[in-house]
Design a protein that fits this description.
By secondary structure, the protein is α/β, with parallel strands linked by helices. It has a single domain, classed as Alpha-Beta Complex (Spore Coat Polysaccharide Biosynthesis Protein SpsA, Chain A). Helix content is about 35%, strand content about 20%. It contains eight helices and nine strands. The strands form two sheets. A seven-stranded mixed beta sheet has the order 3-2-1-4-7-6-8, with helices on both faces. A two-stranded antiparallel sheet has the order 5-9. Helix 3 runs antiparallel to helix 4. It starts with a strand and ends in a 10-residue tail after the last helix.
């Protein structure tokens, strides 16, 4: 019913990738499998962890990078190429429709204690195609965790729109080119035009909503400098 998927580069294996995989194995329910889109051979062997060759599974990323190499970019707001690795992993995995609930986790997330299987029911809701960390004060969502319910037709519509932004380079018409901004543009438009329902896991929380909201009970998202410290100080509610 559930699976988790992610991607990260080999250069990030020691900094956070290995910890991500090992804490998943220890703490996620045995029924849930992990799919890692990776550029080299597996470095952890486990029957619940599936390693998929990134370039074989996501050939569109290299095409996207090549045809847009002339466009000046930066490391975040206009980091189209940098964040396209994540975007094409989304496209490749979601098109497989392996399980009803497909959970994206950024690879700098650690799972801090065992997750009860029944807890997963709290992060999705009937009739809602997506669960995500939406924000009120900051326009774009925090996409370190996104759950997709592929049993709902709005999921198919969202995926087609998302593919268009990358396969037709529509993202370059937007003021920001990173994946979270593109996700939020599509989500807001579909809420207005197509009655898309999104379960907001942030509630009224805006600053680092991953760890201050419901997800923080079992996971920590080590964004930015938090990787060096090994924890998020904002997560004190759960520690």
């Amino acid at each position: 019913m559930y699976n988790v998927f992610t991607t990260f580069g080999p250069q990030h294996q020691k900094l956070y990738g290995k910890n991500f995989v090992e804490t998943f194995i220890r703490n996620w329910p045995e029924e849930v499998h992990l799919y890692v889109y990776y550029e080299k051979d597996a470095f952890v062997q486990n029957e619940r962890v599936h390693w998929l060759d990134y370039h074989t599974e996501c050939p569109g990323q290299a095409d996207f990078e090549y045809r847009n190499k002339h466009i000046q970019q930066d490391d975040f707001y206009k980091g189209a190429t940098r964040f396209s690795y994540k975007a094409f992993a989304w496209i490749a995995h979601l098109e497989k429709r392996l399980d009803t609930y497909n959970i994206w986790l950024d690879a700098d997330v650690i799972t801090t204690k065992p997750i009860p299987y029944n807890w997963l029911k709290k992060v999705h809701k009937d009739g809602h195609a997506i669960s995500a960390l939406m924000r009120q004060k900051t326009y774009h969502a925090e996409t370190g965790f996104v759950l997709f319910d592929n049993s709902i037709e709005h999921f198919n519509i969202f995926l087609e729109h998302y593919k268009d932004f990358y396969e037709r380079d529509l993202l370059f018409k937007l003021p920001q080119w990173h994946d979270a901004y593109i996700f939020t543009v599509i989500a807001h438009d579909m809420e207005k035009e197509d009655n898309l329902k999104i379960l907001n896991l942030s509630g009224d929380l805006n600053w680092h909503p991953f760890v201050t909201g419901i997800l923080g009970e079992y996971m920590d998202h080590l964004k930015g400098q938090r990787k060096k410290f090994g924890f998020s100080k904002e997560r004190k509610r759960w520690t």
